Amino acid sequence: MDPIIEIRSLTHRYGERTAVDDVSFGVRRGSIVALLGPNGGGKTTLFKILTTLLTPTGGSAQVDGFDVVGQRADVRRRIGIVFQSPSLDVRLTVAENLHCQGHLYGLGGNDLCGRVNRVLERFGLSDRSGDRVETLSGGLQRRVELAKSLLHDPQVLILDEPSTGLDPGARAVLMDQLIELRDRDAVTSLLTTHLMNEADRCDDVVVLDHGKLVAHDHPAALKETIGGDVITIQTALAGELARRAEEKFSVRTVVTDGVVRIEKEKGHEFVPDLIEAFPGEIDSVTVGRATLDDVFLHLTGHALWDETAGRNGRSLSK
To answer: For residue 78, what pLDDT is reported?
Structure first.
């Protein structure tokens, strides 16, 4: 692997709370990598460290060989940043926002004008260059944010929840643009997300939970860690049924939001036995192949969106 981002034993604490806990991984050059995790999982802290906005309390991180603490200026020249909160001046036009960004990087004259025109054309914004940003849709504003981050030709894009506030169609378009940047210009993208379908389209997924790294692999490889099919059971007595299913069938279960999940080879063959064992107690059963949601449950014992992580349910993987 040729890592363009290298993180070694990275740790950050806010007082007594550890937000990033001894995390190590690398990001391959020319890849798209998702940092997947729940709120409070450590994604945003890691984003701030990699963008030189926060000094870690331990470990190290490098971007293209430059240290994010000791060589901040070199790192900043090599990264483009898309923040979760909009960073555009909505009272300025699209072109004016881009020119302001260029000046921050010391660009000017014909060089800057040429760069602005190129990114406008690249993202289909040429006909909107004179429009005030406040008149644009959320999807178009995100496109301007992306164009702005690429003005100085960075090798790495670091994006914090870039699809926040976008509808599903606009989210898909944003991912299409990141894939095109990878394939056409070998731009590496690292994005924080809590959206499984977004992570599914990335080359690699880094799973964080409570500040710890719990997995790092291709989405398909992560799904293969699930043993067989995933059976989802809707029932009024989820905890009790899960306990009895474990005793009767020697399976492992996880309960979240009142739903019982079981991993089982040839799940469709197991369902009749399950229904026969618990007559009248099961409201519905579904069987499907593993998703990244299932992988997260498997790894952590709780759902990505579960604010009571660790209090309810049982882990499928210790």
So the answer is: 95
